[in-house]
């Protein structure tokens, strides 16, 4: 199995979450969200190293794992800047597989990680997607063909040097794939097998807490 390195983007403020502090430090099922998310990866046999990007002057939560593979770095003013700082902090070869994951997605499965690693090629990007179940209409009331649309999730990955080069571009994008594609790097979509919920809005907390308390989580 391809060894991989992990970058966790955890420097955001999470203004939409309805909480008074960044959501990655809030608690569900007795653990901080950031620690729950990290725990999904630490048990994977192919994980070689992790860098967590935190906002300036932020410390990890009290239950942060004491795993020698984990280090932290100071994030930047944007997601791209945070991921650049984390990639630079990685002790990894330029062609190593780096997966970038949201701190607010604590339910990614090992099956999803395995599928991304199986699809990884040094010259291409990989990312998770999920089908759309709802009917979709644009603001003009036109129905969109949901079979031609998918939801984009994380992790998203590419070789370390490819990520660093792509993220340096002066774009204003919300995920790594947009930067990679703008740099001419082809990216392969991998369909997720699970929920992979991103905690974004106030109503997401109760669902996340219930899922995190399920046996076998």
From TrEMBL:
Q: Which UniProt keywords apply?
A: Nucleotidyltransferase, Transferase
InterPro entries for this protein: IspD/TarI (IPR034683), IspD/TarI_cytidylyltransf_bact (IPR050088), ISPD_synthase_CS (IPR018294), Nucleotide-diphossugar_trans (IPR029044)
Q: Which GO terms describe its biological process?
A: isoprenoid biosynthetic process
Entry's Gene Ontology molecular function annotations: 2-C-methyl-D-erythritol 4-phosphate cytidylyltransferase activity
Task: Write down the superkingdom of origin.
Answer: Bacteria
This one is known as 2-C-methyl-D-erythritol 4-phosphate cytidylyltransferase
Q: Which organism is it from?
A: Litorivicinus lipolyticus
């Amino acid at each position: 199995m391809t060894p991989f390195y992990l970058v966790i983007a955890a420097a955001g403020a999470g203004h939409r979450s309805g909480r008074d502090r960044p959501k990655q430090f809030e608690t569900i099922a007795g653990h901080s969200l950031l620690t729950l998310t990290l725990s999904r990866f630490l048990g994977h046999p192919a994980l070689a190293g992790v860098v967590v990007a935190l906002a300036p002057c932020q410390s990890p939560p009290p239950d942060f794992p004491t795993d020698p593979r984990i280090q932290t770095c100071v994030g930047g003013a944007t997601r791209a800047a945070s991921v650049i700082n984390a990639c630079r902090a990685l002790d990894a070869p330029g062609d190593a597989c780096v997966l970038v994951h949201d701190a607010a997605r604590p339910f990614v499965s090992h099956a999803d990680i395995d599928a991304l690693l199986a699809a990884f090629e040094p010259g291409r990007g990989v990312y998770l997607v999920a089908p759309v179940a709802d009917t979709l209409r644009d603001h003009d009331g036109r129905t969109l063909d949901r079979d031609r649309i998918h939801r984009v999730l994380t992790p998203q990955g590419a070789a370390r040097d490819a990520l660093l080069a792509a993220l340096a571009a002066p774009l204003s994008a919300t995920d790594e794939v947009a930067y990679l594609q703008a740099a001419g790097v082809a990216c392969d979509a991998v369909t997720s097998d699970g929920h992979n919920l991103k905690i974004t809005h106030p109503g997401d907390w109760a669902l996340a807490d219930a899922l995190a308390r399920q046996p076998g989580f």
